[in-house]
Amino acid sequence: MKHKASLRAGALTLALALVLAGCSQTDSSSASSSDTGESAETATGETSTAETALDTYGYLLDFNYSDIFDENGYIAGVRALDCVTLPEDYAALTLPAGTDEVTEEDIDTYVKQNLLYNASTLPQVTDRAAEMGDIVSIDFVGTVDGEEFDGGSSQDYILELGSGSFIDDFEDQIAGHTPGETFDVEVTFPDPYDSNPDLAGKDAVFATTLNYVADLTDEWIADNVNPYLNLSTVQELRDYMREDIRYNNMSEAAYQALLEEAQFSEIPADVEKYFTDLFLQSYCVNMGSSYGMTLEQVLSLIDSSMMEETAAYFSAVIEESAQRALLIQAIAEQENLVCDDTVRDANINDVLNTDTPDPYIEAYGENYVRATILRDIVLHQVVDNATVAEA
């Protein structure tokens, strides 16, 4: 039961399993089309005298991902087949036409979203002109009536041309230029312009230098992509991505087909609580990472009522997460699949895309990793047995 490694194998792997961290994008400037102006306080709610989330949800500081799972990767104490009635065709699904088709544009988008945006060091191409859709690095100095204005300058600003991040016509005027060129970008600020009302309706000139285009190179792949994947050229990576996108599209389509056709009884209370806590913990951790705060700091800034409202607002998302887990386990039970020691050892490196899984086990716990491996095995079996309808 050993399967080909997936670039997005479960919740444990980082995007593309790269040896990368963070993005090198600099802060935005007045040239941006919007400036949120948010602080951590406004994002999390003003501190109040009401009971804070730390008082009632402080247990999330010690959230245990493995808490609900057993040594086989099952939800402990739950027989999923008592909660889920599987559709008769679960082992031979027919997926919508086109589910298995992947275009070059799909791969380009995947490269940007799952590779370049997560890279600490971007690949730098300087021998071709920038095109709309490219990610580029630029320096710029903005002036109005010949005078520089606050927030109108930046160095090594990372921008996707065509994203609409900057005001109208700015990004279009970069396309066609070659790295190393310095040129003027002439724009008119919109009126009104909430980010800086003093600039509303005014003409501006941005002296701009195009530093490089962020595009894949063989050398960059060799230095930055997880060596476990054994990829050394742009074409090898794109071929790998094509298969990974195809599999992910088919597995998501299979999930949706199963969710629509399966019948669910009431979700066990401890399962619902686990997935609610999992969502809230992840939600607050992500919020904290956006503002450089720890989970404890986030919980101390927001009211308990906000946590309750968040859980209620995303209740459908939480419920589907629980249903997906029960669905996977129900198929595993029906097919007599478990993640025992033998299955774990045969699959763990491929599922986690690493020769050294110990850090994942330490972070998420042994049984959560087993549940992730079991999900991968079940989904591969479902996808392998599925057919795609003809167009």
What this model shows, in words?
The chain has 391 residues and is an alpha+beta fold. 40% of the residues lie in helices and 13% in strands. It contains twelve helices and eight strands. The protein has helices spanning 40-44, 53-57, 104-114, 218-224, 234-261, 269-291, 295-301, 304-313, 315-335, 341-352, 358-364, 366-385, and strands spanning 84-85, 94-95, 135-144, 147-160, 182-188, 203-214, 263-264, 387-388. The strands form three sheets. The protein has a four-stranded antiparallel sheet with strand order 4-3-6-5, with no helix packed on it. Helix 3 (104-114) packs across helix 5 (234-261), helix 5 (234-261) crosses helix 12 (366-385) and helix 10 (341-352) crosses helix 12 (366-385). It is globular and about 75 Å long. 32% of the residues are buried.
